[in-house]
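For the sake of transparency, this paper describes our internal protein records without simplification. The record that follows is passed on verbatim for readers who wish to inspect the format:
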Amino acid sequence: MEKEMQKQTVNINWYPGHMEKAKRQMQEQLKLVDIIIELRDARMPFSSANPLLKSLGQGKPRLIVLTKKDLSDETMTDKWLRVLNEETKTIAINSFDKNASNQIVNEVKEILKAKIERAKARGIRKKMLRALVCGIPNVGKSTLINAITKKKTAKVENRPGVTKSLQWIRIHEDLELLDTPGVLWPKFEDQDVAYRLALLASISDRILDKEAITIFGLDYLKNYYPELLEKRYDIKIEDKRVIKLIDEIALSKKWLKSGGEIDYDKTYDMFLADVRNNNIGKITWDYVE
């Protein structure tokens, strides 16, 4: 018997108390920094943009860094770079790239060139630049910082809420970073954004309806990346109904209970693990037409 399923029946909101505390701490430290470096996930450059950060740092120069570019759809990343650079300087990096440090430092120096020149004119030969690094949970801040400092400075896990406090980290003789916890915003006006964040583990699984998230993810993939879906799960997409896809995937991968019945809970868990570990392929979840 087919399992009854509905798409996006559950609204998602997740804003625990430590995020509000982190936001206040970031506001207190703003006076100490020269620039804000906002990290976004290259797999969802729009959905991983925290609207709070835009209002938080008004008046401060900004650099947007798309992390995990090696995990995203390269064509989509190029399109997003063109879109975002129309408003704010934006670059894309591989978070494990040890050369990312020089790239970020060079961009920061270029953005702050006038400020550096004014400091030189006042007799300050070498100004230490300070940047506040911020972004949503699980965007890759700790991975990036560890890569560019060449040591395990920050704790890394593929789940939200690992970094709990602010800390200063020198990544270059000319640049210090203030590492901050991942922060979301109190209410998601666009539930598609919330579902993308949930797919890529920027929201705690404890509050999620995994069935609804799986349906959302498969519905997107069958429309935009059907060939990757077919290859990963050795299926042919002929019936466009997501329930049929879930059944075909479960049967193909033998995610079954002892009696041969489909184990839906296991199927949801395994699909989400495939998405988060990039086992399906290089996918960008914010599509640019």
The longest helix spans residues 210-224. Residues 154-164 have pLDDT under 50 and may be disordered. The beta strands are 35-41, 62-67, 90-92, 129-135, 167-172, 175-179.
